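Researcher: Please translate sequence to structure tokens.
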Amino acid sequence: MSLWASSRSTGPGVKLESALIGLYLVMGAVAFMAYSPTLTKLIASYESGGPATAEFKELSGRSRMIGIILAVLVVAIIVLMVVKPSAV
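Model: Translation complete:
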């Protein structure tokens, strides 16, 4: 039996690792497709009109919400890595 075949596993640990990688990819996609453009617009709005404009306040709220979503994803990944619910 080859080393590759003997080291392959399809148990619950592999499913957990796949879920963690999926969460990581979702987090990266949200950061790249939502947070980064919002932050760019927020900086441009600040430079053009300052923090008192309506556009800045709206973009600030949006960036805060996206940041919270990203933080929740990071915490979920860390908790799942530490607890490893499938190993129990």
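Researcher: Any highlights?
Model: The two ends are 30 Å apart (CA to CA).
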